[in-house]
Amino acid sequence: MRAGEITARRISTTSLTYEITFTGYFDMENGKAAADAQTDIKVFVGTVGPISVPRKQPITNIGNNTTKNEYSFIYTFPAPGRFNISTTLDNRNNNVLNIGPKPTQELNFFVKSTLVISAGLGQNRTPVMLNAPIDLAAVGQRYIHNPGAFDADGDSLAYRLVTPQESEGNNANGKDLLYVDPNKVQPLGPTENGAFPSTFSIDAITGDLVWDAPFVPGFYNVAFIVEEWRNGVKIGEITRDMQIIVVEANNDRPKLDSIPDLCVEAGTLIQQAIRAVDKNGDPLTLTTSGGVYRSDLIDPQLAQFIAASPNPAGQASGVFRWQTGCNHIRPEAYSVLFKVEDSPRAGFPNPSLFRKLADIRTFRIKVYGPRPKNVQATPTTDAGGRAFRVTWDPYACQVPGAQIVVYRKEGCSDYQPDPCSPGLPATLGYTEVGRVPVTATSFVDSSSTNPLRRGVKYSYRLVAEFPRPGAPITEPGYLNGGGTSIPSDEFCLDLPLLIPVITNVTVDSTSTTSGQISVKWTRPIGLNPSQINGPSQYRLSRATGLNGTNFTLITTINTQLQPGVADTIFVDKNLNTTANAYRYQLEYFFTNANGTLEKLDTSEPASSVRLTQGQAESKIVQLEWVANVPWSNNNQRHRIYREVRGRPGTYNQIAEVAVQDPRTFIYQDDGTDKYALDGTVNVTLSADSTYCYRVETVGTYGNDRIKPAILLNFSQKICATPIDTIKPCPPVLSLDTLDCSTIAPDAYCNQTTFTNNLSWTYPAKNAQGGDCDPNIVEYRIYYARFADETPALLASVVPPPTPPATNYAHTGLSSFAGCYYVTAVNRFGNESAPSNLVCKDNCPQFVMPNVFTPNNDGKNDTFQPLNCPSFVESVTFRVFNRWGVKVFETTNADINWDGTSSDGQGLPAGQYFYEASVTFQSVVRPGQPVALKGWVQLLR
C-alpha cells in the first residue's frame, strides 16, 4: 500500500443508505503480487464488522508504478449518529524513510473517516478526492500536492496534518506510527530558493500540501485530515494517508502561472487563461480536475478546459470556460485543480533516466446569487398606518426552495457590498423582518414585535437565500449551509408625519419633591391646518421609569395650530427627579367632520436621561447614562458637566464624549477638565469628597422635516464619591497551640466543647513595601473543619481604634481540629486577600492498662482505656491468646472487654495479646488509623 482514503455517498432520500468506498493506491514495482491478490478488504462501520468488501473493476494504472483500486459496498445505518468507518490492509510498501519503528513492509496501513448523520443537519455525504495522491518530487525542488477535495453538499472544508497510523486491537481503531515530518529526515536540506532549512506544511483553507524542498531521495508517507463543516459545526472528516516519491532528477519542474481567485454572480461566463512553462523546453502536458467537470457533483452546466494546440516548446496553455448558473450558488468556493507535467524533450540524454515532474495550481471560484433589484417601499394603511409595503422586481434565480429575506434598520448607509462576502454583515445593524418565497415580489412590514416608529428614517435591503446543493426542500434546515446573494441596494424612507413627535425630555432641576422636566414636541407635520374643521388637542401622559408603561394623563392643551403660539411645550413640576426617570407619551386629537374630537395617533414614548455612577478604578468617578427615546443618541458627542466646588448650581463642561452604539453611555472622570472652551477647572478627586454632575445628550431623528435637527436633553444631577479600589493588606494570623507532650492524660475528661483562640496583627506595609490602608472597619474570620475544605465566613469583628490588632474566640467546638484565615475590610467595602492559613489539630489520648480482674467484684472487672480516651472517632479492637487465635473483637470505643470470648464463654486467666486500630478526630481527612499493640494479664 502507498496511499488511500474512505469516502461515503448517500444514495437514498428515504433511508440512511450510503455507498461507502475505499480508494487504495498500490505499489506495482515492489508488491504487484500482493496488490493483485487484494481482491477484497475488511471494513468496520462503528462497532459493526469486519465487513468483507470486494474490489471493483477495472483497476486503473495512474503511472509512477502505481495502481488505483476501489472497494465499494452499500450500507444502511440503523439511526442517525456519528460513525467511524475504518479499514486495515496488511502491508505498507517497504523502505519508507519517515515512519517506523520496524521495516515498513511489516507495518499495516490503517485509515478511517468520520460520518455524521443528523436530522437537524440534513443529508450529508463526505467530500471526494479528485486528485490522485502519487506524484514524483525532485531533490532540491519545491513539491506541491492538492487532493482536489470536492463537497457536493457545499460544506466548508478545512485541512490539517496528522500522523499516519496502523491498526490497534481488533482493527477498528488506529494508533500513531513513529513518525517525523519529511523535511526533518536527516540530513536536512535547503528550500528551492536556498533558504535553510526546508519546510513542510498544509494550507488549512486550500489544502495545498507543500514541501520546499526534498533533500534525501526515497519514499515518504504523510497523512492529513479533510474536515467537513456546516453552519459552524464539524460534521465529518476524511483521513488521506499518501506517499511522496522523492527522486534525483536531471531536469527542472515546470511551473504554472498563478491564477487569481474569482467571485462571480450566478449567470457569469468565466473564461480564464491558464499557462505553464518549462525553462528546459521540455514538452508539457496540462490537465485539470474538479467537481465543476462532473455531472454527478454539480448541475446542470459543466465546465470545460480547452487546451491550446500546438504549443511552443516548453509551454502549455488553455482556456478554462464555465457558464455559471443559479444552481451553482453556494457559500463555499469551487476548487479547480490544474496540473502540468513534463516529458523528455527530443535529444534528451538517456531518456530512461528522465523523471516526470509536476506543478499544481488551484483556481478558486465563488458563485453568489444576483442582487435583488428595484427595491422600493411605500407606506400602507396596515397596522394603523405604521407599515410599509416593500416591492422588488421578479428575482433572477427562481431556485425551488430559495427565499427572499427582508432586512430593515434605522437610518441609511452607503454600504457597498463585497462580492466575495455575500449577505449582510451583522455590524451594519440590519434586522430580519420577514422572508417570503423567491417567487414573491412584495412584503408588508407591519411587525408588532419590532414596530415601525414615526419620524424615523428606515433602510430596507433584500438578500436571497438558497438551499444547500442537492438538499430536498422538504428536509428540515434545507437552507442551512446554502448560498446567499449580494444584498440589494438600499431604499430609505420614513412614515408620514401626520402626528406630532416628542423632541425633548430634559431635566431642568433635580429634587425629591420639586424636580422639574420640560417636554417639547413638534406640530403635526404633513397635516394642513385648513383641513381641520375646528380645534385640535394635545394630550400628554407620563409614566414612571425609563421603561414605564403606566401612563397617566397630566395635561391637555387645545390648539388651533397657529404660528407663534406656545402650544408645543409643557413644564412638568413637583417630581422626584432624584430617584426616578420619567417617560412621556403624546396623543393628538383633531375635530372631525361631525365636529367631535377624534384621535389621529399616539406618538412614540420618550424618557428623560438617567445618570448613575458605575464601578471604576481608584480615584475615578464613572458616569453612566441611558435614555429610552425614539430618536437616536448614537454617533453623537454628548456633553459632561461637573459642578464647580463652592459654587452650587454652577456647572463647567469637562468633556465631550463620542458615543457609537452602546446600550449605556459611559464616561470616566479623573478630575481633568478636557473641554477648554468654557475655562479649565481641574480637580484632584478624593475618596473623602463628593462631586456633582449632569450630562447633556445630543440626538437626532435624522429627518430633515423635524426641527430642531439636533436634540439636546439634560439628565438629572447626581453627586458621587470616587471609588477607592485599593485593597487593604492581609493580616498576619496566630492561633493558640497545643503541646501534646505536656497535656495530662485526663485533661479532657468529661469535656464536650472546646475553644480556639485567634489573634492577628495588621501590617503597616505590604509585601512589596507599599503602604497598607490603615482605615480598617472590619475583620472577617473564615473557618474550615478540614484542611482540604475551602474556608467559609465564620464571623466578623470590628477592630478597636488602637492598636491595630484584635482577637476572636471560636467557641462551642466538638474538637480543636480546624483551619482559619482572616481578611481585612476597609471603609469602602474592599476586602483584602486572605491572611496566612493556620490549622490546629487535636492531642488524642488512648492509653491501655496491662492487667484486669474480671471476677465480678466491682473492681477492675473490664479491660478499657485508662482515664478517658479523647478525640476518638472509631476503634477496632482484637484480642488473641498466646497461640495466635482471635478470641475477642469489638468496635466499641470504650472496649469494655469482660474477659469472655466473642461467643460469650469465660476465658482462663493468663496473658493475652491485643491490637487496636484507632482513628482520631483530625484536621486531615480521611483520618489515618493508629495501630496499637500490647499485652494484658487476665487475673481471676
UniProtKB/TrEMBL annotation:
InterPro entries: Ig-like_fold (IPR013783), T9SS_type_B (IPR026341). It holds the Pfam family CHU_C. It comes from Persicitalea jodogahamensis. The lineage of its organism: Bacteria, Pseudomonadati, Bacteroidota, Cytophagia, Cytophagales. It comes from the Bacteria. This is Gliding motility-associated C-terminal domain-containing protein.
